[in-house]
Amino acid sequence: MRILVFGASGAVGSRVVQEAVARGHQVTPVSRTASPDYVQGDASDPDDVARLSQDHDLVISATRPRPGKEGELVEAAKGLLIGLRSSGVRLILVGGAASLIVPGTELMLVESPDFPAELRPIALACNEQFDLVRASADVDWTYVSPPALLEPGSRTGTYRLGIDHLVTAEDGTSFISMEDFAHALVDEAEQAQQVRRRFTVGY
Prior knowledge:
Elements: E1 2-6, H1 11-22, E2 26-31, E3 39-40, H2 46-53, E4 58-61, H3 72-83, E5 90-94, H4 120-134, E6 141-145, E7 149-151, E8 160-162, E9 175-177, H5 178-191, E10 197-202
């Protein structure tokens, strides 16, 4: 499979590239900054998306904005959806956990009383991003919400799937390593089980 990865120099994107290459896929890593190791491109630029995605089967976007630039998430989603419109190229977009329902409640994660105030800007931007993506009728998209906690760790090769509810362990924690998150993303790339749907993962 020929995979184009936006945000390939980031924490999640770099692990997606590593996982996909290890499985024998042809990967084109994309970063905003020119480098011998990356193709330069901007997910928010539809022309870049259309040009770079030619001759690829799938685009994975794992971009993450700096604090204060949360609106870039929405602009990137627009660029990806316009650039891939009617191209036949699938899109897997790494989003946020904020819109997931907390088990045992009717509340989205961002609505939880103990949700950190400093994370609200990125959470609300992720929710706007998700609304934009799921309204698209021109792209075969998959939106991937991480669990509440996503950190570097080890690759175990195991995870549990969810759809709209936060995946939690028996102790109530919601976590997955970035390595296993990348594993789940490439599994979806290969299996295409969640086309035009959102899914989430956790231990």
